Amino acid sequence: MSQLSEVTSVLDELQKLIYSAFERVGCSRKVLEDMLGLNVPINTNNMIVYLGIIEQRANELLNILHYVNLKVSRSLSLSLSLYNNNNNSNSYNRPNMLGM
Prior knowledge:
Number of strands: 0
Largest sheet: none
């Protein structure tokens, strides 16, 4: 296999993988169409555009994940705080069974 055909083969496979990632992470076709025009397939000239859109979508997903984790963490902290406050206040209101 010549070096040129090997490089071409690798780039063809890379294009398929990039397009698959583009679809799987839910990239916007509208953004792609705005940048490249309607129905422009991935090729060696626009692979970087596809990768840039994938990167942008990955950052959006990471921000969503961070936000959700932050909300869950705050909710758990609040629940734990309320639980601890209720248990502490209940212990003061309990009658002392030993008469003390």
